[in-house]
Amino acid sequence: MGYTEQDIIGTHFAIIFTAEDRKSKQAQKEINAALSEGKAVDERYHIRKDGSTFWAQGMLFPLHDEQDKLLGFTKILRDYTHKKEKEDLLKSNLTYADSIINTVREPVLVLDAKLIVRKANRAFYRTFQVSREETLERYIYELGNRQWDIPALRQLLETIIPENTHFEDYEITHHFEKIGKKSMLLNARKLYRVESDTQMLLMAFEDITKEKELETLKDNFISVASHELKTPITAAWGYIQLFERQIEHLSLAPAPTTSMEKTKQQLLKLNDMVHQLLDLSKVTSGTHPLDFTEFSMDTLVREVIENHTLINPDAEIHIHGSVGRNISADRLRIEQVLNNLIGNAIKYCFGSARVHIELSVTDNSSSVQVCISDNGIGIPVGEKERLFGLFSRASNAIRRKIPGVGLGLNISSEIIKKHGGNIWVESDGTNGSTFCFTIPIDASME
Ligand code: ADP
């Protein structure tokens, strides 16, 4: 404490207490406690001779002589600075983690290994309109009148999560008691707590109900609009043909053939667009489920290439690798994807196209991968992701006036998604591009 014997002998022990503790008569309170209970133990700041403070555990014992007469007290101080620092750090980390979890706008739950809720954030209580009392320390499936007892969630928690350390974007659609029908994306991550050797599970929910509704609205609109457009286009085509015959008959000079041809071209383009939109709505609506058959991807790719080389004899198309086994998928739809990707590889190139197709088996033999590389105009940096959207075209294709409507990749991506696969493009913006897709070997299981 920094005192010499001379400094301290004869001084009241209250000197080691902070000004605040002296004001509240802490020394006297400890004496009283020691007298009534035989000892007084606590932790607090004490003060050294130089005025500096330190965290200490203090023990005060009364001292009696053989006749049980009170002689005085013994005070033992233990420097607990390190313990206090550790506790403070732990507390501040906990507050920090708590404030992060509570600031997150998405609902978050922390479950222990027995699926008991250990923590929920404010967004969880707000979104699902439940209280802390009906949430904390309860089994997940018992929450809110068993509103979380959903087969899809059981599958995630009991089958998928135990085998994986994390899971992203698992979709659940469910009718919740207080908030009605909702679609949620679930992200989950396992946390391991070293100090207690236990597993915890962090789950975050993203409400995508509005996005799903908009998606359905868009799909319905496309389906209705494309159906309604079919009839007037057919009628207009008929009238143009009639008009052509009438002009021939009238033998007008000069005959308006150029404008007639342009009108027909535009009408054909419109017709093509409407057919692609109709096809897209078939894929997305679920009214035309995939027709699974077993077939050889290697043979299908060769057949598609043959057709393209017939129409584009200048194009050089090579295959590398092979799948070497049958897959189960919708053959016609996969053929459509291959036609779109190989057709694009030939269309978006300078002069004669050189196309490489790489076939392989990936993901521990559970998926096939097809990559189609070309020597074409490439995809400008920053435009890759949006190309799989509706009516999306890259700026370089528009600038070069290469004909197209921007629907093929959208349909291809919907087809691949339906098969439980992935589709993406790689391009550095100049030296051609590589479009790849994967689908499970047995997509009917997805
Ligand atoms: P479309 O070819 O009718 O425009 P797609 O949906 O098939 O429609 O393609 C969308 C856009 O992606 C194209 O307009 C083009 O800008 C770009 N694209 C597709 N394939 C390639 C490719 N192999 N090389 C460069 N750009 C491509």
Structure, described:
With 446 residues, the chain is of the alpha+beta class. The protein folds into 4 domains: 5-79, Beta-Lactamase; 85-207, PAS domain (Beta-Lactamase); 212-285, Helix Hairpins; 292-445, Histidine kinase-like ATPase, C-terminal domain (Heat Shock Protein 90). Helices cover 42% and strands 26% of the residues. It has 13 helices and 15 strands. The protein has helices at 5-8, 19-23, 26-37, 81-103, 122-128, 143-146, 151-163, 209-250, 257-285, 297-311, 331-347, 395-399, 408-418, and strands at 40-47, 53-64, 70-79, 108-112, 117-120, 166-176, 180-193, 198-207, 292-296, 316-321, 326-330, 354-362, 367-373, 422-426, 434-440. The strands form 4 sheets. It has a 5-stranded antiparallel β-sheet, sandwiched between helices. Strands 10-12-13-15-14 form a 5-stranded mixed β-sheet. Strands 1-2-3 form a 3-stranded antiparallel β-sheet. The radius of gyration is 37 Å and the shape is elongated. 21% of the residues are buried.
